[in-house]
Amino acid sequence: MSETEFDIIGRYFRRQPVKRKDVLTGIGDDAAVLRLPVDRELLLCIDTLVADVHFPAGTPAAAIGHKALAVNLSDLAAMGAEAAWATLALTLPEPDPVWLEAFSGGFFALAGRHGVQLVGGDTTRGPLTVTVQAHGFAPQGQALQRTGARPGDRIYVTGTLGDAGLALHLRDAAAAELRIRLDYPEPRLDAGSLLRGLASAVIDISDGLLADLGHLLEDKGLGASLQVDGLPRSRAFIAALQGLDAAPAELYYELPLSGGDDYELCFTVPERCCAEVERRLGGLSCGCTAIGTIEAQPGIRCCMQDGGSYQPAATGYLHFQGGDHD
Ligand code: ADP
Ligand code: MG
User: Fold this and answer.
1) Are residues 75 and 37 in contact, defined by beta-carbon separation less than 8 angstroms?
2) Which atom of ligand 1 is closest in space to residue 28's alpha carbon?
3) Quick one: 201 exposed, middle or buried, by C-beta within 10 A (0-12, 13-18, 19+)?
4) Is the dihedral of CA 171, 175, 178, 179 positive or negative?
5) Among 112, 172, 265, 279, which is most exposed with the fewest C-beta within 10 angstroms?
6) Does domain 5-139 bear CATH number 3.30.1330.10?
């Protein structure tokens, strides 16, 4: 190894855009020393990305840096938390300076936009693996959870669905806008914090709408009806499908329902709070769309505007509908 582990850390991970007052000791000592706000609860989450498992081997290093942090910030967003600190465990086959420059650039660009400071980590040699832990705060008792949905609550999603799934499906032929959605997902932290006190349940969509909505239902054995032709689809998504000859109709429905990696929020809102939610999230660039209703009868029923029903192909959904909640 031409550079020592210490050189790598010093060069690439100490230069960062955010310097928070609550970081008393950051990178460089045996542990970080952080000041906790007295009136807040601390929220912690961690996610690992493994090359060839969670991202294709050829993914740009900047995108890997962005996404490793973004998937964690998306989890904090789904809890209604404000992001504060992160730690990074990085396993690298070799200390490639070009790769590290791009990786840290992608990581810090996103961290900078959300006021997140990297406060420590670990660097080891081995197959490319990136683990990020994110730390955030929420006012006491106000963290949003997965378990509060009730029959009659309206179901919403932020942004648009299916873009990342279509980029994966089209691979190199994907339009740039769709690739950006796959490689640089935007954690919906603003939307999450605006939902505090209004949403009854929230989850971020990492595995696809049907699978993740299923998690909001499974605790109390609830069900839902979804309006599948009313799901929000981006202009880039529709344009890319129009350019295809084979089976666009199936992709038009299946990708928004089951394509993962969108990192939008899916949430439920009691009827009396819907107007306020729509007003608040209407002021954000991602916006939000009502897509269905929570029902007492278990299972997810997909409806069409013309009154017909749609039978999704996704196995995650069938598994759930069968009443097996493992
Ligand atoms: P130790 O052997 O005491 O664990 P290290 O040499 O692993 O110390 O790390 C030295 C300092 O650099 C620590 O403050 C650690 O948190 C930080 N650090 C190591 N790797 C990373 C990384 N990938 N990102 C951020 N900080 C790191
Ligand atoms: Mg160490």
Assistant:
1) no
2) 14
3) buried
4) positive
5) 172
6) yes
- 3-state SS class at 51: strand
Weakly modelled stretches of the chain, pLDDT under 50? 1, 315-326
Atom of ligand 1 nearest to the CA of 5: 6
Segments in the chain forming alpha helices (H): 5-8, 61-78, 97-113, 163-170, 176-183, 189-194, 209-218, 235-242, 248-258, 274-282, 315-321
Q: What is the DSSP secondary structure assignment for residue 86, as one 8-state letter?
A: E
Q: What is the pTM of this model?
A: 0.93
Domain with CATH 3.30.1330.10 in the chain: 5-139
Its CATH class, for the domain covering 154-310, is alpha beta
> Whole-angstrom Cα distance, residue 325 to residue 315?
13
Cβ neighbours around 314 below 10 Å, total: 17
In short, whether 8's Cβ falls inside 6 Å of ligand 1 is no
- Residue of the nearest CA to atom 20 in ligand 1? 122
Tokens 């790598």, located at residue: 8
Residues of the chain with CATH 3.90.650.10: 154-310
Residue-wise pLDDT for 76-110, tens only, equals 999 999 999 999 999 999 889 999 999 999 999 99
